[in-house]
Amino acid sequence: MKVESKLKVSTFGKRSEGDERVDESLSPAPSPLFQVCHFIGEMVKFGTFAKGEALFCLKMLLFDFSHHNIEMACALMEACGRFLYRSKDSHQRTKIYLVRFTHEGGERREEQKTSNLIPRCCCACVLLGANDAEEDCDVP
């Protein structure tokens, strides 16, 4: 008589015994810190969070430019970077932080994920074809 074990073998996109939910995506759920940075960026665009405070948060993330801080800075810049870059009162500081962002990102090319995140964030902030863009974006 064969006895089957009831071990869970989880694979993406397939239902296993005991699983009620099927995970169709291959990427993990975003971390809470990532969600908070994206939420701050959305609040900046709606005017409920000060631009100066968001730029200060970006400055602190650039100060310690490690793995999670890179993702959080990218989330913040993707959410409100173009808004900060186009606003008169925050344009200069945003431009300085973007230059520092690309410089710091150029030094840290060891991970494929971070090497794709940084140019994508910079291109999200600076519109393609703009006269004041310093570098061409090579994002596919």
Keywords:
5 helices; mainly alpha; 56% helix; 0% strand; single chain; 140 residues
Mean pLDDT: 75
- Give the helix proportion (percent range): 55-70%
Strand content: under 5%
Instruction: Measure the end-to-end span.
Output: 57 Å
Number of separate helices: 5
Count of DSSP strands:
0
Q: In this structure, how is the largest beta sheet organized? A: none
**Quaternary organisation:** single chain
Mass-distribution shape: globular
Query: H/E order of the elements?
Result: HHHHH
Would you identify the regions where 5 or more consecutive residues have pLDDT less than 50? 5-13, 22-26
Structural class category: mainly alpha
Radius of gyration: 20 Å
Could you describe the 3D structure shown?
The protein is built from five helices and no strands. The model is unreliable at 5-13 and 22-26 (pLDDT under 50). 56% of the residues lie in helices and 0% in strands. The longest helix is centred in the middle third of the chain and has 20 residues, at 67-86. The protein is an all-alpha fold and 140 residues long.
Brief rundown of the structure:
The protein is 56% helix and 0% strand. By secondary structure, it is mainly alpha-helical.
Blueprint (SSEs and pairs):
Blueprint: H1 32-46, H2 51-63, H3 67-86, H4 91-107, H5 112-125
